[in-house]
Specification:
The chain is mainly alpha-helical. The protein has two domains: 5-83 and 202-284, no CATH class; 87-173 and 352-395, no CATH class. The chain has ten helices and ten strands.
């Protein structure tokens, strides 16, 4: 993993506005917590040694959390999300031209025949798994099973059976690799493009993204937990002071000080951000447990949802799925270490063959069902057209 200068040059100046906003918001919340809460007479400078020790421990924990938030966020923003794609996947201009010609010819051969209502037979020596279609209905997977062994290299292919490639980056796309038009590059195991980080999330920085959400959620929860009682005491004190002032001078304006005002706004922001980020973090933990990405999770809403919801070709068990993202050592899962994830991001282990055989059967059923529906729709359209012509001729 490294910082790619070419990747940074592709980003416009306006795209950095949200990054600056996020850094400013985190800094403002941290400084408010320090100078308006910790560094006061009621905590760090309290005469009681127990409260001073509590304040020091709270300060250490806060600094640790905020440091990890900053560190993970900077890694997600400035480091390459997944890539560049290894040089052995590169394609020449001549190879790309040939692949485009093959795509055209293979599409003409493999275009569906609406007159056929029976699924094509499946070769016993080669099982074809047409994975849930991409959002553009262009890609699928083809898995070769030879003596119950599943190939772990380049199993995803287009719907016409040809290999997936990127004509812009001039590379053959590895499995789970996608081209990001915003970043202008192919990203290994791409999850999604995050505008708040002005970068994609992929094989190299996805762990740091999850840890960023984790530490930020813990920071928000910690702030709300330790400041709730103090804020209620501060508000009640201001109200009692305002009541006394009204009795003495007639002025009932209980305006808080600048530090108290920042504490209240900081509390509200941390409360609502903590709830939303917790839900977002829970969703990504769910994806990790199933070894899925956001792109693949969105694809399951297609006609193959009933199949995808029960299984997933990259789902190799919860523990192995967690290790594939967070690292082999569970003791380092919650630490933002750079060398924790193994592999190149080009090959991924595949689940058992039972799922693949079932997918081939369901895909054949889906094709048959779609062909029948298309024929019925075409017949109904012709009948409606003839009936309309008949009614028009009677009126004439």
């Amino acid at each position: 993993m490294h910082c790619d200068k070419n990747l940074l040059r592709n980003r416009s100046i306006s795209s950095w506005i949200l990054v600056v906003f996020v850094l400013a918001l985190i800094s403002w919340a941290f400084l408010t917590f320090l100078f308006a809460y910790l560094f006061t007479d009621s905590l760090l400078f309290h005469p009681s040694p127990f409260i001073q020790i509590y304040s020091i421990i709270l300060l250490i924990i806060t600094c640790f959390l905020v440091f990890n938030v900053y560190y993970c966020y900077i890694i997600c923003v400035f480091y390459h999300p997944g890539g560049p794609v290894p040089s052995e996947w590169n394609l020449t201009d001549l190879e790309i031209q040939k692949l485009k010609q093959e795509d055209t010819s293979m599409f003409a051969i493999t275009s569906p025949d609406l007159s056929s209502t029976s699924p094509s037979p499946i070769n016993q020596n080669q099982k074809v798994y047409d994975f849930h279609p991409r959002s553009f209905e262009k890609e699928s997977m083809q898995i070769e099973l030879e003596e119950n062994n599943v190939s772990e290299s380049n199993i995803e292919k287009k719907r016409n059976g040809s290999i997936r490639y990127c004509s812009l980056c001039k590379v053959r796309k590895p499995d789970r690799c996608h081209h990001c038009s915003t970043c202008g590059t192919c990203v290994l195991k791409m999850d999604h493009h995050c505008v708040w980080m002005n970068n994609c999330l992929g094989f190299h920085n996805y762990k740091f993204f999850v840890l960023f959400l984790f530490y930020l959620c813990i920071s928000c929860c910690l702030y709300c937990f330790v400041t709730t009682i103090s804020l209620f005491q501060m508000i009640s004190k201001n109200l009692s002071t305002a009541t006394q002032r009204q009795q003495n001078t007639g002025d009932n304006n209980p305006l808080p000080t600048f530090g108290q005002f920042n504490l209240i706004w900081n509390y509200l922001i941390c409360f609502f951000f903590g709830i939303s980020l917790s839900l977002f973090l829970g969703y990504h933990i769910y994806l990790i447990c199933y070894n899925s990405t956001t792109i693949e999770a969105m694809e399951k809403r297609s006609k193959f949802e009933r199949l995808y919801s029960s299984s997933h070709p990259y789902n190799i068990g919860v523990m192995n799925n967690l290790k594939s993202v967070l690292g082999d050592n569970p003791l380092l899962w919650l630490l933002p270490t750079l060398r924790s994830v193994q592999g190149t991001g080009c090959e991924f282990p595949i689940a058992d063959t039972t799922f693949l055989k079932e997918t081939s059967r369901i895909f054949a059923e889906e094709n048959t069902h779609l062909n029948i529906e298309e024929e019925e729709e075409e017949t109904n359209h012709l009948v409606d057209e003839e009936w309309s012509n008949f009614i028009a001729s009677r009126h004439l």
